[in-house]
Prior knowledge:
By secondary structure, this protein is an alpha+beta fold.
Amino acid sequence: MVKFIFKQWLRHRERLLISVIGLMLISGTLIYLFSLTESTKETVSGKLQEKWESSYDLLVTPPDTVMNKDNLMEPNFSLGINGGISYKQYEGIKSISGIETAAPISVLGYVQLHITMDPFQPDKPGLYKTTTRKTHDNGLFTNKFPGEEIYRTVNWTVNRYPQFGAVPYDAGITLRQPQLIVGIDPKEEAELVGLENAVANQYFGTSDKARKDTEFDRVFHLPVLLNNRSFSNSTYKVTLEKLQIPFQTSKEQRQVAERVKKKGYEYLHTIDTEPVDTYKTSGKELEEIYFNNLNKPKEGTSIQVGNTGLYYEASTLDYAETKSPFPKQWAISYKIASKKLASENEILQDTSLEYGFREVDLVEHEVNEEGVPLLPILRFDVVGQYNPEKLRISKDPLTKLPIQTYRPAEANIVLGPDNEPLNPIQKMKGSGEPTGILSNPPNVLTTVKAAEVIKGGNSISAIRIKVKGIEEIGNAAQGKLDEIKQEIVKQTGLQVTITRGSSPQPTITKVIDKDNEALGWIEQPWIKLGQSITIFREISMGYSSILLAVLLIGTIYVFATSYVSYLANKKDYSIFLALGWRTNMLRNMMILEAIAFVILISLLAIVVEYILYLNGANFNLAKIGLVSVASLVMFGLGMLIPLIRIGKLKPYQGIKSGEIGFKSKRFIKNKSIVGMVVNQVFQRPGRNLLSVLAIALPSTLLSFYLFVSFRLDGVLYTSYLGEFVAVEVNETYYFIMAAALLIGVLTTGKMMWQNIMERQNELAIFKSIGWKNRTVSLVIVLEGALIGFIAGLSGLLLSIGYIGIMYDIFPWDSITILLLTICIPIFIGMFSVLIPVIKAIRTNPYELLKASA
């Protein structure tokens, strides 16, 4: 058998050369693809992990929270959830197998930090006015809060306290700064983000517990950690003016008091003033003063830290959909508007909350007989301070998960009020106000147990969960996350969101003021849930589709090789059967030849891998094994039909007619070269279909990559791909497609070679009656062109369908792509018949007709 196979190779050296070239292409392409797939998996997974780091994998929230219809989450949204999860549910979640860390958040709401100070200390008797104005420039607009005006007396001598609406100056000036306070589980938070290591002095201990005051109702003592890095961007300006009115003697003071009582308090506003002094401070300085005095009270200072009331619930913004001014850049757009807030807030007479972008409600409270809300009073027992910069979370603003406890939301102002692009882009900052656009993280942390003491049951707002053994993005990790998600939902009925495998999604939001006037557009990175895992799967699927296409093309090539070998040796096989050979012996011979080719492919793979090794890559035996297995699969599938056909071969068939007595039906009249070409192609539909498929499959992918190159600027976006992760279509794709197309050339060449061998008598007759070599060549080249045209048309239809599925675009207007998709396969079909043309024009009519006779 081996000797016969060897002789057949020597007898048909040209065909053997084509086979070897094809096997070299298959081996090199496979080893390259396996190398590329391995490196791409690492690159894609690494890039996605780098692009979207998350300190936790799952987020548990109360039902019907988190997502909108676009499967998006707004920045810092969890800080707007006011409870909804019980401590019992939290304990149950912690006990689930596979959960490494479960870190809860209890959002208590906003407190007002009160600091009383005396920055002026006037010594001249008189009636003074202090005006406190707070402003916040967030980059988009300057929010000027209504000023607080207070009339103060210096050297009041009439009685103990003025009776006309003024106060003694020694009462000082009170500045207020809102702060969000959140409860955490100290142990779980330390494991999740390393909070324990970010504390400068002491961390929460077992003795740090909340307690309700035994003497005063509604007063709670809380253990707290203070943030030593302020996120405030507010400024305060206090002006001192002296009223130009006699106010030196007791008589003058009585006259002013009587006049005010008679004309009303507004009378004081009509009196001219002269400036005395001005005091300015920032929200950061104010917080530093407050926290330093709270942490280490100083004796003999004029600064006093007052009781802290828990005033407002946290809330989220009301986003409404709107049309994007630049949909290609920002496909998703919203709008938010300033609005007049609920009247309940007026109980506190805090005019700064008259309008806002977030609706705020007072925390749960009782009301006294006068209708005054009895809000909780918090007294802080400072345990220590922490530095958020030392936490174990991503520092990159583009990769952070915007639902952390410790980060402010950020935004870029990208468009003006008339939708004009801004250059340069401006940064927008949060105010820390409960009604502001961008929320600041809490500067005061207590424990979830303390939150439970104040708010009672269901005080936990969200639980961040890290799962054991999840280190990267991938299908295995996603499956484990899905499993734990379902278990939590089954046990608690809470909503569970998988945050790992998500990705930033740029969104643009139109900001509208209270007068319904546009202020501009801000861009923020929202969360697209499941984005990165979708990217990972689709990119992996993209490379897998290339690999599958190459394997399929290789299988077609193997089938063509085996089938041509069967046809070429059919006469010999029938003689062997007549001499007494069994069919299994013929099959074994074909299998033996296939094994020889598989061994050759494996040897070539070793050579290619060694070349890659010499260029710095690792020598990977696993890839060589994969190439060998893939080759076995290709040859196993490619030889099925020839093995079946050889079993149906009879001893007399090859001897009686060989392949010369071929008869077939004509599709059109054979009156011209065109008719002859069409008939020759369609008279052998099976084998020519192989040629069409071998060219059409790589042509489909080539057309798709041409579309990406021409229409998407060379960047491959998957159906859910956002702005931050994309795959560049580079020379790698075209190299693989070129190799696949070359295999298609060899497949067509083999088939056409066999066709020429079967038609040698026919060609001899044509040449004997006067056909020239150029006419014979033209017929065969046109056959190749027709096969290429059919393949190109098939590839075009397939690629248009593929593009339509991926991008919902049908590129009928892309003339260049359409023409290339048709013309390239036609050229390939014509190129693939060059060797058969040479064989055809070398046909000697005299010798063939003599042998036939």
